[in-house]
Amino acid sequence: MKILVCISNVPDTTTKITFTNDNTQFNTSGVQFIVNPYDEIALSRAIELCEGGKGTVTAINVGESATEPTIRKALAIGADDAVRINAAPRDAYFTAYQIAEYAKSNEFDMILCGRESIDYNGSQVAAMVGEFLDIPSISIIKKLDYDGSTATIEREIEGGKEVITVSGKFIASCAEGTAEPKIPNMRGIMSARTKPLQVVEAKEIEQLSKIQQFETPPPRGAVKLVPAEETARLIDLLHQEAKVI
After folding, report:
1. What domain of life does the UniProt record list for this protein's source (predicted)?
2. Contacts of 72 (CB under 8 A, 6+ apart)
3. d(CA 94, CA 98)
4. CA distance 120 to 11
5. Whole-angstrom Cα distance, residue 195 to residue 131?
6. Which helix (H) or strand (E) holds 187?
7. Residue 86 in contact with residue 64, Cβ under 8 Å?
8. Which residues, including other chains, have CB under 8 Å from residue 13's CB and lie 6 or more apart?
């Protein structure tokens, strides 16, 4: 069994976000980057499925050389090897196309990724990869089992669970609960230095979207405390000032 896991290079959740070039570009100065947490879940489940010599896990990232420390983190967690598509990921369409092109020339039984990246929260890549490869795409899964030919997948739906079986190749985006993120140990960190990391040049594709401008949300206003016994005043503030009722 061979599993391809898509890895995003994202800012740490505590990062203070700023922009440059007239608010058209994310300012990476001083930013600590990490493996996208949802992708860590997907990677952890892939490693579990391949434990005991049942298969191999390849991590793939679309990014420039600055993303290699993040890729090495994925190798330290337990991926067997990794691939970096040498290009800045300009949008989800471009990223999905590069992943699909690599997957076309390299056989994989399944492709896993996180439900979304925590920077853009687009939730688009998995579905686009599925379309490019003409394979089933299952989004926001909570459980994944595989018997060597058929995958049994659980998703949460309103009021219950949806159980799906998939035979053949597929791509799935993983949410919390699919697996517990693994913490790299010292042996994993040391071995990550020597695990194969292949660099592949990106394929040309038409650019269909472009970021016009980023905007940060307005700063939060001051908090008004209303005593519990002044219900009428609270209602008046919600109606006249906050305009939420």
Report:
1. Bacteria
2. 82, 192, 193, 197
3. 6
4. 11
5. 31
6. helix 186-192
7. yes
8. 37, 118
